[in-house]
Design a protein that fits this description.
With 1006 residues, the protein is an alpha/beta fold. The protein contains 37 helices and 37 strands.
C-alpha cells in the first residue's frame, strides 16, 4: 500500500514531525511504500524510510496563503509527481495541507487527518495570532471533508475534532513512548544541533549533591507553555530544600536568566535524542508546567524511563500521566509534591510499579502503528455481500418504547434504506430463531419502527425457521445483530446457534450500570443477569458501545474478569427524534407559564424523587413562578415505589402530571410545547432524552457528571448536582427566569451538531462491511498476480526511471539475447538491475552511491563498483579483456548530465567488442541526457553497425519559454559487432525494423 505523509516540516525537535517520522519508519518496516511531502525536512533522517521525498515550494514570504498556494501547486503537479502510482491514502499532519483535502477527494484518494489540535492563543503576538486564527478557520472549513480523523488523545477528539468535523469518523490513537530506544535525531545527522556538554554539567552537579529537575518541553514563555512558571516554582521551593536545580531546554545564548535564578535555573540547550535520554535518566524528576497539551510527548518519554513526572491536571495529561497522584491543580501543589518526591516519599513502590507496567504495555509505538495499519486496511476494503439479521424478540412484545427498544425499532427502519434486513424472534423452547408473525411484525413497526408490507417474510400457521429461510437466499456472509440486552441463559444458546449456522455476531452495548451501581438496579432479574451478559458479549465478533464511557466500562469489566473479547468499536447513539424535522428556530422564554418536561422510565437511577422534591422546593421558595412538570415514561420492574410516589405527587401537586407511555407523535408535540426539559438521571450509558430535547431546540437541565456532562459540554444544557433537590430547584428557577441564559442555551441547542439515525446506521453498516472484509480476506485464497508480477517476476518494480513502454523494450532485448556478461552504469533504485540479473550470467553495477552494494546485495550474480564511471568503466573493460570475458550487453542510465552521458557512450565507442554487443541508453526523463546521446561521436567506432536514438519513445512534453515539444523518456539502442563495418552505419533506423535486423546479424540465441 502506498501512503503519502504530508506536513509542513520533518525537522528536529518538533513533536508532530517526530510522530510522522516514527509512523513512516514503522509502516515501512511493515512493507508500506512511503512518500513524504513537505516544505522542509532533515533529508538524512527521512531518507531512511521514505521511498520518495517531494519538496513543496514555499512561495517566498506569502506564508498566510500557503495552504491555497500548496493546493494549487498540487493540482497542477499531481499527475506528473505520481505518474506511476498514486497514493492509496494521504495522512496529513496539518498546515499547509488543509485546503488540499478537497483535491485529494476530487482525485479519489482517501484522507486521514492526524489531529494534534490547535493550541491556545493567549500570549502570542499579533503576527502569530493571524496564522493561528487562520489555521482554526481552515480546520472548520476543510476537516469535514476528511475520510477519517485520528486525534492523538481523547481530549483533542472531544474538544476539537468532533467540533470542527462532527460528521467525520473520529478514532483517537494515543502516541507511544518507547521511541527513545530507537533514536531518530542524532547529532551526527542533524547539523543544527549545538553541543552544550550537558552530561558533563549534570555529572558535576550530582557530585555536589544537587537535586536535579528537568523542565520538559521547549522553553516558550508568554503562551500556553507557561515556561515562566518555572521561576515561580523555584521561589516556592526555596527554604524547603537546598541545592534544587531546574534544567531547561533553551539555548544559553538566547535566554536571559535574572541574577537571583542563575544558580538554580540552568539552560542546557537542545540535546539530541541519545543525550536527552541520558539526561532524563540522571535527573531526579521531571515537571511540565504547560497549561495545555494535546498529548505531551516529553512527559511520556520520561515516564518510559520509570522516572517521576509532575504535570498540571489539564489537557491530555490525565490520559498520559502514570498515576493520578502526579497530577497537580496548582503551582503550590506541584512544589509540595516535588519536595515530597525529593525527600524519598514518592508513590508507594508496589502501586507505582503496577501502573508503570500498565503504562509500558499501553504506550508503545508498536500499538500505535498496528492501529494505523488496521485502519488503513479497513479503509481500502472491498464491499462484501452480507445478510443482516436482527433479533427483535423484545421489540415485538414491548408495547412501550423505552430507550433500548427505541434503538432496535429505529435501527430496523433505517437499515431498510440500505439493505433487506431479516427480522427474527428467538424461541427459547425450540432453541432456534423464527420469522415473526403478523402480530409480532405489527408491534415491531410501532413508534417509527420498520415498514412491514406483504413482501416481508412472515411466519403464519406454519412457522418458518431462520435456517430454512437462509437456504433460499444467495450465499453471503451473514451477521446477527443483538440490539437488546440478552438474558445469558438464551445468550449461550444463541451463540451456539450462530456458530452452527456460520453466522457472525454483533451486539450493541448500552451500559454497565447494574455492575457499577447495583443499588440503582431494583429489578432482580436484570441485576443477576448483567454480569453474565457482559461476559457473554466477549464471545461476539463485534461489540458496538453507545458511548466511550460504556466502552471503557465493558473493557474494564473484561479485564477484571480476565477476558479477551471481540473487536469493540464505539458508535455513539444519534440525537435525532424519529419522524420529526430538527427545530431551526430558538424559542423565547415565555413571560407566563413555564412548561417543564421530563422523559424517562420510572427507575431508581433516573432520580424522580429528587426532581419532584426540587419542584416542591421551587413552589415553596418561589410561589410567584408559574410552572408545570410533565412526566413521560413507563413503569419499571422493581420500581413500584417510584410509580406510587409519582402518582401521589401528581394528586397532591396539580402542577405535576404523569402521562405514562405516549406515542412518538404525542411526544414530539410535548417537546415542541415545553419551555425546557429536565433529565435528572445520575448515571447513563448515553442519555438520549437530552439529545432529543436539543433536537427540538429546547434547553435541558442535567447532571454535571458522567456522560451527561460530556453531552452538555457541546452546548444547550445547564448542568447541576441533580442529587441535591435544592441545587436542582435553583437551576430550574435560573433557567425559568434568566432570559439571556435561556436565549444562549436555545441558540446553542439549534446550532450544535446532532447525529442523525441515517448517520448512525451508515456507520454501523460500514463496521459490518469492514469486519466482513477482514473475515473474508483472512481465509486462504489463491493469489491473483498483478500484471507487473507477470511481466517482471521477482523484479523491484518501483522507482524505475522508465515508463512502461521502455521497461517492456528492455525486457524484450534481454529475453532475446540472454547476455553472458552485462554492465549497468547508474543503478539508482535497482529496478533495471533486478531485471538484468535475471537474464545475464554475470552483471557488473557501476554507481556513484556508496550505499548501492548494501541495498542490493541480494543479487548473487552482480558485482558492484562504487565511484565515477569515467574511472571505473575503462578499468573494468580492461580487466575483462585480460581474463577473456566478452561484454555483450550494456545499459547506460542517464545521470541528468549531457556531458556525463556523452562521456559514458564514448568510453564504449573506444571498446573493441569480442562478440556481438548491444548498448541500450536510458535518458532518465531528462532532455539533457537525450542531448548527450545525440551529440556523441558515433562515427568514432568502426565496430558499430547501427544506432537508433528514438527506440521505444516516451512522451512529448512542453518545456521552455517557447512552448515547443521534445521527445523524452525513451530508450536508444546501438549494435556493435567484432567485424569492422565495410560501409557507413545507419543512425535513427526505424524501430519496427530492429528485430528483423537482429535476426539477419547471425547473433547467437536469435
Amino acid at each position: 500500500m502506498h501512503i503519502l505523509l504530508c506536513n509542513e516540516r520533518f525537522l528536529f525537535r518538533f513533536g508532530v514531525d517526530r510522530v510522522l517520522i516514527l509512523l513512516g519508519r514503522t509502516l515501512k518496516e511493515l512493507g508500506y511504500h512511503i512518500s513524504i511531502m513537505a516544505n522542509q525536512f532533515d533529508r538524512k533522517t527521512v531518507e531512511e524510510f521514505a521511498d520518495r521525498i517531494i519538496e513543496v515550494p514555499v512561495y517566498g514570504t506569502d506564508y498566510l496563503n500557503l495552504n491555497e498556494l500548496t493546493s494549487e501547486w498540487l493540482e497542477q503537479s499531481w499527475s506528473q509527481i505520481f505518474r506511476d502510482s498514486s497514493p492509496d491514502i494521504v495522512l496529513i499532519g496539518g498546515w499547509p495541507f488543509f485546503s488540499s483535502i478537497l483535491l485529494f477527494n476530487k482525485i479519489g484518494v482517501k484522507t486521514v487527518f492526524m489531529d494534534c489540535g490547535a493550541v491556545p492563543l493567549d500570549g502570542y503576538p499579533d503576527s502569530i495570532l493571524i496564522i493561528q486564527n487562520r489555521l482554526r478557520n481552515l480546520r472548520k472549513q476543510y476537516l469535514k471533508y476528511s475520510t477519517l480523523i485520528t486525534p492523538i488523545s481523547k481530549f483533542i477528539a472531544t474538544t476539537q475534532s468532533s467540533i470542527d468535523a462532527p460528521s467525520v469518523p473520529i478514532d483517537p490513537i494515543l502516541l507511544g513512548a518507547d521511541h527513545m530506544e530507537k533514536p531518530i535525531w542524532l547529532a551526527s545527522k542533524v547539523n543544527t544541533i549545538i553541543k552544550y556538554y550537558s552530561l558533563e554539567l549534570i555529572q558535576s552537579l550530582k557530585e555536589k549533591n544537587c537535586k536535579l529537575i528537568l523542565n520538559l518541553g521547549r522553553w516558550e514563555p508568554g503562551c500556553y507553555k507557561n515556561s515562566e512558571a518555572i521561576f515561580q516554582l523555584s521561589n516556592r521551593m526555596k527554604g524547603e530544600m537546598q541545592n534544587i536545580i531546574i534544567l531547561i531546554l533553551a539555548d544559553p545564548n538566547n535566554i536571559e536568566i535574572l541574577p537571583e535564578f542563575k544558580t538554580c535555573i540552568i539552560p542546557i540547550g537542545f540535546p539530541d535524542d541519545e543525550e536527552l535520554q541520558e539526561i532524563m535518566r540522571r535527573v531526579d524528576l521531571g515537571v511540565s508546567v504547560s497549561l495545555w497539551e494535546g498529548f505531551n510527548l516529553p512527559l511520556a518519554e520520561m515516564q518510559w524511563l520509570n522516572k517521576p513526572v509532575l504535570a498540571f491536571n489539564v489537557g491530555a495529561h490525565p490520559e498520559v500521566i502514570l498515576h493520578p497522584w502526579y497530577l497537580c491543580e496548582t503551582l503550590n501543589e506541584m512544589a509540595e509534591k516535588i519536595i515530597t518526591i525529593l525527600n524519598g516519599n514518592d508513590l508507594h513502590s508496589e502501586t507505582r510499579q503496577q501502573f508503570f507496567q500498565k503504562f509500558q504495555s499501553s504506550f508503545r509505538w508498536g500499538n500505535f502503528t498496528k492501529t494505523y495499519d488496521n485502519l488503513f486496511k479497513e479503509m481500502i476494503y472491498q464491499p462484501i455481500n452480507i445478510n443482516i439479521i436482527i433479533d427483535v424478540t423484545n421489540a415485538t412484545k414491548d408495547t412501550a418504547n423505552s430507550g433500548v427498544i427505541r434503538v432496535t425499532r429505529r435501527l430496523c427502519r433505517e437499515l431498510q434504506n440500505y439493505v433487506k434486513p431479516i427480522f427474527v424472534v428467538w424461541k427459547s423452547e425450540l432453541e432456534t430463531y423464527l420469522l415473526p408473525t403478523k402480530t409480532e411484525y405489527w408491534q415491531l413497526s410501532q413508534f417509527n419502527g420498520p415498514i412491514i408490507d406483504d413482501s416481508s417474510p412472515c411466519s403464519g400457521d406454519q412457522k418458518i425457521s431462520l435456517s430454512d429461510y437462509l437456504k433460499k437466499l444467495e450465499p453471503a456472509l451473514t451477521w446477527l445483530l443483538l440490539t437488546e440486552t440478552i438474558h445469558e441463559v438464551n445468550g449461550k444458546l444463541i451463540r451456539n446457534y450462530a456458530h452452527k449456522n456460520n453466522i457472525y455476531l454483533a451486539a450493541i452495548f448500552y451500559d454497565a450500570i447494574p455492575i457499577i451501581q447495583p443499588d440503582l438496579c431494583k429489578d432482580k432479574i436484570i441485576f443477576e443477569n448483567h454480569a453474565h451478559y457482559m461476559r457473554g458479549l466477549s464471545y461476539c465478533n463485534l461489540i458496538v458501545p453507545i458511548s466511550e464511557f460504556s466502552k471503557c466500562c465493558l473493557e474494564n469489566f473484561w479485564k477484571q474478569e480476565g477476558l479477551v473479547g471481540g473487536d469493540v468499536k464505539t458508535n455513539p447513539l444519534p440525537g435525532e427524534f424519529s419522524g420529526s424535522f430538527r427545530s431551526e428556530r430558538s424559542k423565547d422564554l415565555p413571560d407566563n407559564k413555564i412548561k417543564i418536561l421530563c422523559v424517562s422510565t420510572l427507575e431508581p437511577r433516573k432520580n424522580h424523587y429528587q426532581l419532584i422534591y426540587a419542584c416542591q422546593f421551587l413552589e415553596a421558595k418561589y410561589p410567584q413562578l408559574n410552572w408545570s412538570l410533565t412526566l413521560v415514561g413507563n413503569r419499571y420492574a422493581g420500581g413500584d415505589d417510584i410509580a406510587e410516589f409519582v402518582q401521589r405527587s401528581c394528586q397532591e401537586t396539580p402542577h405535576i402530571c404523569w402521562l405514562g407511555v405516549v406515542d412518538d407523535a404525542a411526544l414530539h408535540k410535548l417537546y415542541a410545547q415545553c419551555t425546557f426539559t429536565v433529565y435528572p438521571s445520575i448515571i447513563e450509558g448515553f442519555g438520549m432524552p437530552i439529545m432529543e430535547s436539543l433536537w427540538h431546540g429546547r434547553p435541558c437541565i442535567c447532571y454535571e457528571q458522567g456522560v451527561m456532562a460530556e453531552i452538555a459540554a457541546q452546548g444547550g444544557c445547564l448542568t447541576t448536582d441533580v442529587t441535591q433537590a435544592e441545587k436542582l430547584a435553583e437551576a430550574i428557577y435560573q433557567l425559568a427566569t434568566d432570559h439571556d441564559l435561556y436565549a444562549q442555551l436555545s441558540h446553542e441547542a439549534i446550532s450544535r451538531y446532532i447525529k442523525t439515525w441515517d448517520e448512525y446506521t451508515r456507520i454501523f453498516i460500514d463496521m459490518l462491511q469492514i469486519h466482513s472484509y477482514q473475515f473474508a480476506t483472512d481465509q486462504p485464497q489463491a493469489k491473483v498476480p498483478s500484471w507487473q508480477e507477470i511481466l517482471y517476476p521477482d523484479c523491484l518494480c518501483e522507482n524505475w526511471q522508465m515508463n512502461e513502454s521502455e521497461r517492456m523494450g528492455l525486457t524484450a532485448i534481454l529475453h532475446r539475447i540472454k547476455p553472458d556478461c552485462a554492465i549497468e552504469i547508474g543503478t539508482y533504485k535497482g529496478g533495471s538491475l533486478s531485471l538484468i540479473s535475471q537474464y545475464a550470467k554475470v552483471v557488473f553495477s557501476i554507481d556513484i552511491d556508496p550505499s548501492i552494494p548494501e541495498k542490493f546485495k541480494q543479487f548473487s550474480n552482480v558485482s558492484f563498483f562504487t565511484g565515477p564511471s569515467q574511472i571505473i568503466l575503462p578499468a573494468l573493460l580492461q580487466e575483462l579483456d585480460k581474463v577473456n570475458i566478452a561484454v555483450d550487453f550494456v545499459l547506460i542510465d542517464g545521470d541528468h548530465s549531457t556531458e556525463g552521458v556523452k562521456r559514458d557512450i564514448e568510453i564504449m565507442l573506444n571498446y573493441i567488442p569480442k562478440k556481438p554487443m548491444f548498448i541500450m541508453l536510458h535518458d532518465g526523463f531528462n532532455p539533457k541526457c537525450r542531448q548527450g546521446m545525440l551529440t556523441a561521436n558515433w562515427e568514432k567506432s568502426p565496430y558499430i553497425q547501427w544506432v537508433d536514438l528514438d527506440f521505444i519513445p516516451g512522451r512529448v512534453v512542453e518545456h521552455g519559454g517557447g512552448g515547443h515539444g521534445e521527445m523524452w523518456g525513451g530508450l536508444a539502442l546501438a549494435y556493435f559487432h567484432p567485424i569492422k563495418r565495410s560501409q557507413t552505419f545507419q543512425v535513427d533506423a526505424s524501430s519496427k525494423e530492429i528485430f528483423k535486423r537482429m535476426k539477419t546479424l547471425q547473433y547467437p540465441n536469435l
